[in-house]
Amino acid sequence: MNDNPEKRLIVDQEKCRSLCTCGNDHPAPTAMVLTHQDAYSLLAKDCAKAYPHESVLLLDDENTHQAAGAKVAELLEKSAVAFERVTLPADPVATDELSEEIHATSAGHSLIIAVGAGTINDLGKYVADQRQIPYWSVPTAPSMNGYTSSIVAIKVKGVKRTLPSRPPQFIYVDPQVIQDSPLNLRQAGFCDVLAKSVSDFDWQTESLLFNGGYCHLPSAITHEPEAKYIDHPEGITQGDLHAVTGLFEGLLFSGVAMSLAGSSAPASGGEHLISHFFDMREAITGKKPNLHGLQVGAGIVLSAVCYRKLAAVEIKDLKNRSREIFEADAGKIPAIWGHLAGEVGKQFAGKRDRLLQFDSLLPANWTRLKALFGGIRQPEYFVDLFRRTGLEMTLASLGMAEGEFFLAATTARTIRDRITVLDLAANAGILEEAAKETIGMLS
Ligand SMILES: [Zn+2]
Ligand SMILES: [Zn+2]
């Protein structure tokens, strides 16, 4: 991170052009980041200057208020900014109901400033987008990649949805706050940033089979800061400034990668469905999900196991029973999802046509796909990295019962209409074995 209190773009357009392999136009990244020990004073000054006669909504929760929100509020007051503060109870969940409440509160305000990480950032970004007013973000932890992204994850009628939303105009980062963030949030961010190591291959696979829309640019951009956090994961545990801010940078790049792709595909594939599955199942089982990134970590191991198994499948062993496999999994939806079955069923039906084409597309492309699968890191590599951040990385320590994880692994592909490695594994008949092998590795 630099010491210069200037706002900067994460990547400039020139660089994007030089790294693009698809030849299509990519939306120019717009979020400007200011990283400085006095970032919050500069925010207050900017705010007073930009909104001298208007009022601002300041959003945080009980935890992020302590970490940074109180300080931001104090500085806004000192700068004579008119603002209304909404402090949500600790650990809020981004639901359509909560976003509607904040939407109502935001009436009459000209800017939303959200102080926090995953949920707070999603809510602030989403409501500002709906109101068509600017959004400023004050990150409090390197826990997920949503700060710079042009999407939000919101539970709509109980189903986790990824919705488009303009990225923040400015992001004000106090590196000390990021460094001092709770360990479990740093560990979660470490897992989330590594999702790209498998999800980028999900995207390449989908592109190879269906639309050819893959571009190497998002992956090239996120690769850049990787060494800072991956070479010494112990630094995440120790709160080492280089490792933690390197991780934070990696997450900012990851969000930009999604903006550039115009989709979450570069950073969210089958491994994210595992996390979304646990988030959504709370409505059925009453079991509170774990942190997004930690659940994604378990999903990454599963995806890597699937890819290793797929790389060993021969063309002659492909099942060619896509209709039967689709119908079997569609038939499981009502028992698993209860009152959410209608919404889940719609998502799964959304990719039915593509899945039915697997019978012809997989054999026709299998040689190329296998070459692709061979380039993916081994599951043991990820387990080792996660454990080196101090995570125990067992299903028990992640709060995932074995039976529930098996159900997630074998059916999470039904909750979203995106094609991922889980669909390939199901069609090649290796998904159940991969689930069992992953459970073995995480026990
Ligand atoms: Zn491109
Ligand atoms: Zn994520």
Account of the protein in words:
The longest helix is centred in the middle third of the chain and has 21 residues, at 241-261. The chain is globular and about 70 Å long. By secondary structure, it is α/β, with parallel strands linked by helices. The strands form two sheets. A seven-stranded mixed β-sheet has the order 1-2-9-6-5-3-4, with helices on both faces. The protein is 57% helix and 10% strand. It has helices at residues 13-19, 39-50, 62-78, 96-105, 118-131, 175-179, 183-194, 196-211, 217-223, 226-230, 234-238, 241-261, 270-285, 292-311, 322-337, 341-349, 352-356, 358-373, 379-388, 402-411, 421-427, 431-441, and strands spanning 8-9, 32-35, 55-61, 82-88, 111-115, 135-138, 151-156, 159-164, 170-173. It binds zinc ion (ZN) (2 copies).
Secondary structure blueprint with pairings:
Elements: E1 8-9, H1 13-19, E2 32-35, H2 39-50, E3 55-61, H3 62-78, E4 82-88, H4 96-105, E5 111-115, H5 118-131, E6 135-138, E7 151-156, E8 159-164, E9 170-173, H6 175-179, H7 183-194, H8 196-211, H9 217-223, H10 226-230, H11 234-238, H12 241-261, H13 270-285, H14 292-311, H15 322-337, H16 341-349, H17 352-356, H18 358-373, H19 379-388, H20 402-411, H21 421-427, H22 431-441
Parallel strand pairs: 2-9, 3-4, 3-5, 5-6, 6-9
Antiparallel strand pairs: 1-2, 7-8
This protein binds zinc ion (2 copies).
The site of one zinc ion has 7 residues, from loops.
